[in-house]
Amino acid sequence: MDIDARGPRFGAAVTTVVLAVVLVTGSAWLLAWQLLVFALGAAGGVTRAPYGWLFRRFVRPRIGPPTEFEAPQPPQFAQVVGLVFAALGLVGHVAGWQWLAFAATGAALAAAFLNAAFGYCLGCELYLLVRRAVMRAE
Closest Cα to residue 23, out of 79, 86, 84? Predict the structure, then answer.
């Protein structure tokens, strides 16, 4: 079943704010929270992640029914990609490798911002590239 295309963009906007705060404050705890959000989105899809719940509960009732839908698999894969970068960032924080913490968090922030501001989902595009490569290999 397709999902409301506005939901992942809302999640990306919240993620952008969270990751920006992580970069400004250096909070490993906040990055751990975002890692959990990515993990839930990767495991159950973006509609089951906390930001998806916030969108359904508070935002969607105020903006009306969706007019644009998308397949759930690309945004879910994007959550996996975000999970990897958040995990690398958290490893950097814990190990004291600030360069890794800032680089990985910054990369995740850039991807989230692109989705929130322009509707361009890097993880979704990566999903399509991987899927094409797998189909060619079969």
Answer: 86
Judge residue 115's burial from the number of C-beta atoms within 10 Å of its C-beta, 0-12 exposed, 13-18 middle, 19 or more buried: buried
Neighbours of 50 (CB within 10 A): 14
* Cα dist from 52 to 21, 57, 117, whole Å: 20, 9, 17
Q: Is pLDDT at 138 greater than 90 in this prediction? A: no
Q: What share of the chain is helix, strand, coil (3-state, %, to 5)?
A: 85, 5, 15
- φ, ψ of residue 69 to 5 degrees: the values are -125, 160
Distance, CA of 115 to CA of 8 (rounded, Å): 8
Cα–Cα distance, 45 to 87 (Å, whole number) = 18
The DSSP code sequence of 73-86 is HHHHHHHHHHHHHH
Alpha-carbon distance 55 to 50, whole Å?
9
The CA distance from 52 to 65, in Å, is 15
CB 102 within 8 A of CB 92: yes
- pLDDT tens across 76-119, in order? 999 999 999 999 999 999 999 999 999 999 999 999 999 999 99
